Amino acid sequence: MLTNTARRRLFEDLFSTSLHRSGGQQGLGTREPKFRVKNTLLSLDSTPISLCLELYSSAQ
Known about the structure:
flat; mainly alpha
């Protein structure tokens, strides 16, 4: 079992390695936007919907 310090170091090393390996790939750093949306863009996360369906039987 990992201690909190060992777990923190593991995730720091994993993040550092991932960042280093992907550094040469497209999409990191500053770049030109690929498209623009003139109108307001709305999105909906379906997590609350499935959560309500699980918690409240009357929601079905």
